[in-house]
Amino acid sequence: MRLVLVGPPGAGKGTQAEQMAKRLDVPHISTGDLFRANLRDETELGREAKRYMDAGDLVPDEVTVGMVRDRLGDADTGGGFILDGFPRNVAQAGSLSEILSDKGLELDAVVQFDVDDEVVVQRLLGRGRSDDNEDTIRNRQRVYREETAPLLDHYRDRLVTIDAVGEIDEITDRVFSALHNRNG
Ligand code: AMP
């Protein structure tokens, strides 16, 4: 299955992506993780991305899309993938559909993790990542509302919405039963 996960920062996308990737035996591709790995390794791409990440802004599309195109060229994505944190705006969604259609592929579904803004601020503050201070969090939420949320309408014909409040396993079960019901 080729899936995209969408949800506000702190909705638990990363955790769910991992669980789903394990069950489906496909790679979990997190653009945030890829950027953080580049920061750690002090690559050119990491240097370009850093100031945007520190501010909670989106890294420019050409940088992000290039990184994703490379990753989707890897052989392990042949049986599907779970994209976590990409696309983050409608332009990236367009680039993704081009990358896939070049391979004769398309997305199976887009899973939206639905959770209240205020609930997640506390969760994020507890997580302790360097971009998890309150100002950056508020900015990431604004970016989500303004740039990422329009994807929900863009993908409405393949959107599966999940209530993302609950126990981890319970939410994973919700995702799979929703995907199952959708695929008949
Ligand atoms: P995340 O781990 O998904 O919260 O991403 C951390 C940071 O990486 C974001 O705040 C952005 O600065 C950057 N980032 C991750 N994914 C993307 C994307 N698809 N487009 C642009 N920037 C991204």
TrEMBL record:
<dbReference type="GO" id="GO:0005524">
    <property type="term" value="F:ATP binding"/>
</dbReference>
<feature type="binding site">
    <location>
        <position position="129"/>
    </location>
    <ligand>
        <name>AMP</name>
    </ligand>
</feature>
<feature type="binding site">
    <location>
        <position position="166"/>
    </location>
    <ligand>
        <name>ATP</name>
    </ligand>
</feature>
<feature type="region of interest" description="NMP">
    <location>
        <begin position="30"/>
        <end position="59"/>
    </location>
</feature>
<comment type="subunit">
    <text>Monomer.</text>
</comment>
<keyword id="KW-0067">ATP-binding</keyword>
<protein>
    <recommendedName>
        <fullName>Adenylate kinase</fullName>
        <ecNumber>2.7.4.3</ecNumber>
    </recommendedName>
</protein>
<keyword id="KW-0808">Transferase</keyword>
<feature type="binding site">
    <location>
        <position position="36"/>
    </location>
    <ligand>
        <name>AMP</name>
    </ligand>
</feature>
<feature type="binding site">
    <location>
        <position position="31"/>
    </location>
    <ligand>
        <name>AMP</name>
    </ligand>
</feature>
<feature type="binding site">
    <location>
        <begin position="57"/>
        <end position="59"/>
    </location>
    <ligand>
        <name>AMP</name>
    </ligand>
</feature>
<dbReference type="GO" id="GO:0004017">
    <property type="term" value="F:AMP kinase activity"/>
</dbReference>
<dbReference type="GO" id="GO:0005737">
    <property type="term" value="C:cytoplasm"/>
</dbReference>
<dbReference type="InterPro" id="IPR033690">
    <property type="entry name" value="Adenylat_kinase_CS"/>
</dbReference>
<dbReference type="InterPro" id="IPR000850">
    <property type="entry name" value="Adenylat/UMP-CMP_kin"/>
</dbReference>
<dbReference type="InterPro" id="IPR027417">
    <property type="entry name" value="P-loop_NTPase"/>
</dbReference>
<comment type="similarity">
    <text>Belongs to the adenylate kinase family.</text>
</comment>
<feature type="binding site">
    <location>
        <position position="92"/>
    </location>
    <ligand>
        <name>AMP</name>
    </ligand>
</feature>
<feature type="binding site">
    <location>
        <begin position="10"/>
        <end position="15"/>
    </location>
    <ligand>
        <name>ATP</name>
    </ligand>
</feature>
<feature type="binding site">
    <location>
        <begin position="85"/>
        <end position="88"/>
    </location>
    <ligand>
        <name>AMP</name>
    </ligand>
</feature>
<feature type="binding site">
    <location>
        <position position="127"/>
    </location>
    <ligand>
        <name>ATP</name>
    </ligand>
</feature>
<comment type="function">
    <text>Catalyzes the reversible transfer of the terminal phosphate group between ATP and AMP. Plays an important role in cellular energy homeostasis and in adenine nucleotide metabolism.</text>
</comment>
<comment type="pathway">
    <text>Purine metabolism; AMP biosynthesis via salvage pathway; AMP from ADP: step 1/1.</text>
</comment>
<keyword id="KW-0545">Nucleotide biosynthesis</keyword>
<keyword id="KW-0418">Kinase</keyword>
<dbReference type="Pfam" id="PF00406">
    <property type="entry name" value="ADK"/>
</dbReference>
<dbReference type="GO" id="GO:0044209">
    <property type="term" value="P:AMP salvage"/>
</dbReference>
<feature type="binding site">
    <location>
        <position position="140"/>
    </location>
    <ligand>
        <name>AMP</name>
    </ligand>
</feature>
<keyword id="KW-0547">Nucleotide-binding</keyword>
<keyword id="KW-0963">Cytoplasm</keyword>
